[in-house]
Amino acid sequence: MLEKFKQNQSIAYKIISNTLNNKHYAHAYLIETNNCTEGFDFALTFAKLLLCPNYNNGQTNCQNCMQCQMIDDNNFPELKIIYPDGNWIKKEQLIELQEEFNKKSIIGNKKVYIINKADKLNVNSANTILKFLEEPQEGIIALLITANRYQLLETIISRCQIISLNGQANLLKEKDAFQKIGLLITNTDEEYQEFISDETNFEKVNAILKFINYYEKNHKKVLLYMNDYWFNYFSLKENISWAILIIIYFYKDALNYKINCPVEIFNDYLEEITKIAELNQIDMLINKIKVLNENRNYLDNNANLNLLMDKIIIEMEEGGK
Ligand SMILES: [Zn+2]
Q1: What is the distance in A from the centroid of ligand 1 to the CA of 62?
Q2: Is the model's pLDDT at 321 over the cut of 60?
Q3: Could you tell me if 306 and 253 lie in one domain?
């Protein structure tokens, strides 16, 4: 059943085959889909092979054993799949998972959980899953799926073996900044097409660049004009989440420029990138990226958006001295 990925996902195919053959399992895998459509299918196949007793005995195309059939019917107790509940994956969902997985396996000696759209972990749920990853239990394997690894906390990424699938995001070089942003913040081709065909999104990306520009020139004074520069465009949590991500990408590119590495996303905004790179020391850029990353994870359901944006500006300024 892994064979169907052999051609399109040859590298990932090899990694999984070797893992299964050697029986050296990591405790957690991060499956980076790069916006390909088969990410979930790939994760589910991997989970099935981990759990199928026949695969362990060398039969690579089982599908027929009790385990395989129960997985197909979505009622195998040792496989749990977590999806976002609304906009976020909630802490309660993960606590429930942990409680269930703390019990002894009923069938076999392995348990697998899949977190689909792991970028939808908020600060509370990310901390909960982190505790789970930090104290791995024998026989429990986590598969996290996300469009690209940069959407996740560094602390989570570092606990996972990354399996990067071939997808659209690998075509980054052929696209302009707006299209690249679309690829980075969406999860499927459908979402991507929707994003880039909506002109208001283009305006929003430009508004973000204007905001950065105004902030970089005027520093804390921007706090007086947050409605004009920010909340006129971004008033919903979901929008703010990706808007902050775009600022992070922008500063990362300014940092790239500063340290003579290739600009990755904003190639067609080189003038803006150069200007910001000149206004900031390397450690100032690193601090700004850190502040944005940390605060983006506070965007859960209770966040006060005005306070959060103020906090970001103040913390970015404090690090700049
Ligand atoms: Zn089987």
Answers
A1: 4
A2: no
A3: yes
* Residues 207 and 137 reside in one and the same domain: no
**Nearest CA to 230 among 318, 120, 313, 319?**
313
Calpha distance 78→132 (Å, rounded): 16
Structure tokens, 15:
């990694």
- Tell me the pLDDT band of 300, cut-offs 50, 70 and 90: low
CATH number, domain containing residue 219: 1.20.272
CA of 16 to the centre of ligand 1 (A): 16
The reported pLDDT for the residue numbered 273 is: 97
Picking from 173, 199, 222, the residue at the C-terminal end of a domain is 173
Structural domain boundaries, residue 311: 175-318
Distance 45 CA to ligand 1 centre (A): 11
Q: Is 61 in the same domain as 189?
A: no
Distance 293 CA to ligand 1 centre (A): 42
Distance 279 CA to ligand 1 centre (A): 59
Same domain, 161 and 37: yes
Does residue 301 surpass a pLDDT of 70? Answer: no
Decide which of 173, 192, 211 is a domain's last residue. Answer: 173
Q: How many domains does the chain have?
A: 2
Angle ∠(6,11,13) on CA atoms, nearest 5: 40
Using CB atoms within 10 Å of the CB of residue 228, give its burial: 0 to 12 exposed, 13 to 18 middle, 19+ buried: middle
Q: How many residues does the chain have?
A: 321
Return residues with CB closer than 5 A to ligand 1 (ion).
Answer: 52, 54, 62, 65, 68
56 and 125 inside one domain: yes
Å from CA of 65 to ligand 1 middle: 4
Residue position matching structure tokens 């906009």:
87
Q: Each residue of 225-256: pLDDT tens digit?
A: 999 999 999 988 778 888 999 999 999 999 99
Do 273 and 290 fall within a single domain? yes
How many angstroms is it from 1 CA to the middle of ligand 1? 10
> How many whole angstroms from 179 Cα to the centroid of ligand 1?
41
